[in-house]
């Protein structure tokens, strides 16, 4: 749901604006692009408007209740839509976030449950004589998700301030994030 | 503002989308991208905005800025967590250990909350999932604080891990 409608094909301003509003909707930035209808000269449009009085949450619940009740299959989206770099980066951001959160929670549970102390378990791992390659791999496995999630997080914060939405910018910042993540992870490996 | 007929489908749908999305986020005013205001007050059946329902006050059910404030809090916490990184590196100690425990747990809790909101549907399921998440986060924070108190602490733990 979060991933859709990145359009890389076009420079068409309508679709670019459409993408912008998708970001607007998803990331909830506060850019004003519309006209206030409260002014009297727009009163003619009110004739066609009826107040709804329900929230987005209620509307979404209604959608899901109805469609699951009717046992409707999910419409193909990620299986048919062409995957793009921004889409992949977005789901990777989510994946690393969930993964890191899970790892922290697992660590916390282990701290509560396991009898020994942390240095004890570290020495235990030491004594397994894993070898430099696998050790490096494990370090990379920790460093990369942290780096990627951090750098991409900064990119997200940029979007939250309304910056960097143009498609070329999205790609440029995206590749920067990937590059920085790899470099940082390798650098951290060396320490 | 153009006079006369609306010619294209795409701009209409686009306006529809703008209308909906802006209406959702500007609850106190009704916003629309100007498309075509009929100068004669006739029915124009192809004017798609006519079929959009919108509420001038979408917060009719609850006049709460909770969601908006939550969003802001999430971003502020992210910035705070970002700042904690260098502090933890240059000034390790119990203060930053406990701050990190709190910030990491909360950031993860809110992040996972968003994931649940995206993928879990149905009132009961949502409630159960959020309850489970709350439990997980509580256990996580407890575990991290326990580790900070009874063991080496987060900063030292990372340093030791990396030294191997």
Automatic annotation (TrEMBL), chain A:
Pathway per the UniProt entry: Carbohydrate metabolism; tricarboxylic acid cycle
Annotated localization: Membrane
Pfam families: Sdh_cyt (PF01127)
This protein's record includes keyword Transmembrane: yes
Transmembrane segments: 15-31, 97-118, 130-149, 170-190
Signal peptide as annotated in the record: none
A single GO molecular function term of this UniProt record: electron transfer activity
Membrane topology field: Multi-pass membrane protein
Major location category of this protein: membrane
Keywords of the record: Heme, Iron, Membrane, Metal-binding, Transmembrane, Transmembrane helix
PROSITE patterns assigned to the protein according to its UniProt record, in alphabetical order: SDH_CYT_1, SDH_CYT_2
Biological processes per GO annotation: mitochondrial electron transport, succinate to ubiquinone; tricarboxylic acid cycle
One cellular component term from this protein's GO annotations in UniProt: mitochondrion
Record's function text: Membrane-anchoring subunit of succinate dehydrogenase (SDH) that is involved in complex II of the mitochondrial electron transport chain and is responsible for transferring electrons from succinate to ubiquinone (coenzyme Q). SDH also oxidizes malate to the non-canonical enol form of oxaloacetate, enol-oxaloacetate. Enol-oxaloacetate, which is a potent inhibitor of the succinate dehydrogenase activity, is further isomerized into keto-oxaloacetate.
Subunit organization: Component of complex II composed of four subunits: the flavoprotein (FP) SDHA, iron-sulfur protein (IP) SDHB, and a cytochrome b560 composed of SDHC and SDHD.
Protein's UniProt name: Succinate dehydrogenase cytochrome b560 subunit, mitochondrial
Source species of the chain: Oreochromis niloticus
Source taxonomy: Eukaryota, Metazoa, Chordata, Craniata, Vertebrata
From TrEMBL, chain B:
One Pfam assignment: CybS
Organism lineage string: Eukaryota, Metazoa, Chordata, Craniata, Vertebrata
Subcellular location: Mitochondrion inner membrane
Any GO molecular function: ubiquinone binding
GO cellular component: mitochondrial inner membrane
Oligomeric form and interacting partners: Component of complex II composed of four subunits: the flavoprotein (FP) SDHA, iron-sulfur protein (IP) SDHB, and a cytochrome b560 composed of SDHC and SDHD.
Domain of life assignment: Eukaryota
Membrane topology value: Multi-pass membrane protein
Residue numbers binding a ubiquinone: 119
Key words of the record: Electron transport, Heme, Iron, Membrane, Metal-binding, Mitochondrion, Mitochondrion inner membrane, Transit peptide, Transmembrane, Transmembrane helix, Transport, Tricarboxylic acid cycle
Keyword Repressor: no
Principal subcellular localization: mitochondrion
Pathway(s) of this molecule: Carbohydrate metabolism; tricarboxylic acid cycle
Name of the molecule in the record: Succinate dehydrogenase [ubiquinone] cytochrome b small subunit
Binding site residues for heme b: 107
Signal peptide location: none
Keyword Nucleus in annotation: no
GO terms classed as biological process: mitochondrial electron transport, succinate to ubiquinone; tricarboxylic acid cycle
Purpose: Membrane-anchoring subunit of succinate dehydrogenase (SDH) that is involved in complex II of the mitochondrial electron transport chain and is responsible for transferring electrons from succinate to ubiquinone (coenzyme Q). SDH also oxidizes malate to the non-canonical enol form of oxaloacetate, enol-oxaloacetate. Enol-oxaloacetate, which is a potent inhibitor of the succinate dehydrogenase activity, is further isomerized into keto-oxaloacetate.
Similarity field: Belongs to the CybS family.
């Amino acid at each position: 749901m979060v991933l859709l409608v990145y359009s890389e094909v076009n420079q068409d301003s309508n679709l670019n604006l459409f993408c912008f509003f998708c970001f607007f909707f998803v990331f909830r930035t506060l850019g004003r692009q519309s006209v206030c209808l409260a002014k009297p000269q727009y009163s003619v449009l009110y004739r066609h408007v009826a107040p709804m009085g329900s929230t987005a949450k209620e509307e979404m619940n209604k959608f899901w209740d109805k469609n699951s009740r009717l046992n409707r299959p999910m419409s193909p989206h990620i299986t048919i839509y062409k995957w793009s770099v921004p889409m992949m980066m977005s789901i990777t951001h989510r994946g690393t976030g969930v993964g890191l959160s899970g790892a922290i929670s697992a660590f916390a549970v282990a701290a509560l449950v396991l009898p020994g102390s942390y240095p004890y378990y570290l020495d235990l791992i030491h004594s397994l004589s894993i070898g430099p390659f696998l050790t490096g791999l494990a370090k990379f496995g920790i460093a990369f998700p942290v780096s990627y999630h951090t750098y991409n997080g900064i990119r997200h914060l940029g979007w939250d301030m309304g910056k960097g939405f143009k498609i070329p910018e999205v790609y440029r910042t995206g590749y920067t994030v990937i590059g920085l993540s790899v470099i940082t992870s390798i650098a951290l490996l060396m320490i | 503002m153009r006079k006369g007929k609306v010619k294209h489908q795409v701009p209409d749908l686009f306006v529809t989308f703008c209308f909906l999305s802006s209406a959702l986020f500007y609850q106190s005013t009704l916003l629309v991208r100007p498309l075509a205001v009929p100068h004669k007050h006739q029915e124009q059946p192809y004017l798609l905005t006519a079929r959009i329902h919108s509420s001038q006050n979408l917060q009719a059910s609850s006049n709460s800025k909770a969601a908006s404030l939550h969003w802001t809090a999430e971003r502020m916490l992210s910035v705070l967590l970002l700042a904690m990184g260098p502090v933890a590196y240059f000034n390790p100690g119990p203060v930053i250990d406990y701050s990190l425990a709190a910030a990491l747990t909360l950031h993860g809790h809110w992040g996972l909350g968003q994931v649940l909101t995206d993928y879990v549907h149905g009132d009961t399921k949502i409630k159960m999932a959020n309850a489970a998440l709350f439990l997980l986060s509580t256990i996580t924070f407890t575990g991290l604080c326990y580790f900070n108190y009874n063991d080496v602490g987060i900063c030292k733990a990372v340093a030791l891990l990396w030294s191997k």
